[in-house]
Design a protein that fits this description.
This protein is α/β, with parallel strands linked by helices. The protein has two domains: 45-176; 190-490, Purple Acid Phosphatase, chain A, domain 2 (4-Layer Sandwich), CATH 3.60.21. It has helices spanning 2-34, 53-62, 148-151, 168-176, 204-212, 223-226, 256-261, 279-291, 303-306, 344-356, 392-402, 479-490; strands at 45-47, 73-82, 90-101, 108-109, 127-130, 138-140, 142-143, 154-164, 190-199, 231-236, 266-268, 295-297, 299-300, 310-314, 317-325, 331-332, 338-340, 360-366, 406-409, 418-421, 424-427, 432-434, 445-454, 457-467, 475-476. Strands 9, 10, 11, 12, 22, 23, 24 and 25 form an eight-stranded mixed sheet that branches. The longest helix has 33 residues, at 2-34. The chain is elongated and about 135 Å long. The chain starts with a helix and ends with a helix.
Length: 494
Amino acid sequence: MAKGRKRGKKIFWCGLGIFVLVFVGTFFGVQYFTKTGVFRIPGVVYYDESLNDDELAVLAEIFTDEIDLDKDVTISARNELALPELHEGEFLYNIYVPVTDFYSIENGITVASADELFTNCLDCSYKLIPVDDLDFTRRLLKINDQYYLDDFKSGAVFRIISFESELYEEEIAPLIGDALQKTFPESDTVLTFAQTGVTALSRGMNQKLYRVGDATYFAENIKDFLSQFDLTHTSNESSFTDYASASNICSDKRFVDTLLSIGLDIVELTGNHNQDCGDVAALETIDTYIANGIKIVGGGKTADEAAAPLEIDEKGTGITMLAYNLSTGGATYDDTPGANQYYDEVAGAQIAEAKARGDFVIVDIQYYECNAYASTYEDATCDYADSSAGDQVGFFRSLIDMGADVVVGTAAHQPQTFELYGDGAIYYGLGNLFFDQIWWPGTTRSLVLVHHFYNGKLLQTEIVPTVYGDEMQTRLMDEETREWFLERLISVRP
């Protein structure tokens, strides 16, 4: 009996030993094959050679030595010429845009791949910069005929950082957090503002309207371009009236359709012809603008109204627009309609007040007109900023010295040169957007300034030339003519 008990104990302990061995073997075997427990191998961070030093420094702050991962993660970067659809683990880390000198007439570059733009190129006329560094002092170029500020999805190099891990959601996403979440310009946050030159829908245009019957005829080839912007401006020198004719600077009332077709938001009334049709027509014209939701600057029903700044606050950008008439006639000094007369002390105070608010300041000036209408050949006299009476260069520069950011001449019937000066930019004359002056080549042209603002900063001003012919239908210049004309204006800058 005792012998049987001993044998039973032996079997029990043998069985227990085997169980323990199996359990321990299984326990550590599972850990061995699954690489957990005592056999666990920590996850490794692999940095691809495509990452640059800046990116590696940022990532090193996230994946410190104290970070313990269960699974490996591979981090890489790539460049794209169009903004791709981002998938799990992908981030838009930066956007790079090509820029050149402000005075360059170059319009764009052509490349086969995004990486090609990062190649060291001593002879390249462009430089690739982060979009955060873009400002109006350098000219933004197209890439493969795509302009970044048009749709924000092309015309740039989009830098994408990717994370590949079996446990991306569980391990990597919480570590990254908001570290790689960046905000870039997009259509909802960039304010576009097109400034145009002289509009005088009158004289021969009245005569043409009688024949064509539709006032939108004159804008047919430019309306889609101008109406696409958040704000579109022109300096209209002619009031609407029933007494418009082929010989006066008065507009047939149907011409309001021309302005509405280009999406006009702001009308400048600094011109010297708005009273040509009398005060009643000028007052009724102002009412027409107001009824159509068009803002007014540089003129009004009274001197006080005419002197009021136009304050704009849209898409995170504050702009104060000031507009003055200087020695061209048509100004009001009392309770009658007219243009806003220029005074140094008033301009200085208004600019200072706007800057104190933190606004971007645009000053438009109806300056002395340049007259080079004596012939039908290419007369470049008015290209020069000092071709007008008085010291045009000195006067316009003084407004920048007062604190204005951009100064624009809106009296010139022929486009004039432009320049960077101090901390701002000066466009001495924009020329005719709409008029009947078809006899002289210079007066058939104009410059459209397309400003792009982001968080109060002027990212860029595109200079877009237009032209019209005997048919009086304004259109964009073709590329070859654009280059020739801009080079001509740039060559005579102060």
